[in-house]
């Protein structure tokens, strides 16, 4: 934790460096990152202006802390930028994670040219609900993909809300703390996924590793990508993480550690999506108290009807969370959270992902009806309640013949108890404040 005495001491050290002649005037990255003074302070090379900077020069250094290069071995790394085309592919991978029975079919239809093949999928009980994820590989695009599913239903969303409010954060890796529920979900799924990931990396050492997820899945993707780098399972430059509507995962120390471990990490936020504001902060995000976002935000300042809708990179100088981007949005929308680039992420598998083949399977597999009731919660129950609450201005659910909705789904929606409605309203109110 940064204290006034620490800041004072750091200022004195900088002045002593000036006296003894320590300067950061190197004209290349390797010399700059190798320039260390008697106190162990190293110059910083910033790729944004390709200049060498003195530590603490926040006003003249355009790079945030995690972007500064202080290790010569990192000088060869490429500077990453947000890639809309890659973002769309990652979103399809995230959407397929919601499919309870046939995620492979969803991938076949949504990303046919990439030819991703699922190598391992897992669904395990996490807390009183279930968490899911899968590992896939594409020899066509030379990628190993790791995707996590978001909240399954209202019960899980509410469990996340309650545990985040009342459970203390837990240590993760060497630095920082993360929310208890995210860590619990990750630790439930990862032991089953890790061995397959290691095997695929060993067999395909040149492949990139894409790690992704939507909502709760994004939080677990954050932990997985950091774990891969920290445990040296994959090198920092090979890991690429794109998350969608991700909540704040941990505190500032975790954010900084994540950025040190992952150089190509993007938090995609659709306009006034409510979930990236959770857990909430008082005032503005700060390094001393409360939750804090990591990575670079790719902010769509208007509803992201397309991956190429108006957007910008928000680097949040000097550190991460940029108050001029999604944080500046006054409204909070769950409709924006559900839909990214015109895709209803949580229910895409049942609406468009597998087309007519889904309908045929649904009529022949009794188990699908039971599972669909749970996974259609967001599409039917939650939307119904948001419409009841009016202020969010969300319309009723889609009514098409391709999935298991119609009269039975409406009956489930209208059967929500008074208690459930009250709890939902409380969640909406809390996140909206």
TrEMBL record:
It comes from the Eukaryota. Keywords: Signal. This is Fungal lipase-type domain-containing protein. Residues 1-21 form the signal peptide. It comes from Porites lobata. Residues 146-281 form the Fungal lipase-type domain. The keyword Ribonucleoprotein does not apply. Transmembrane segments: none annotated. The lineage of its organism: Eukaryota, Metazoa, Cnidaria, Anthozoa, Hexacorallia.
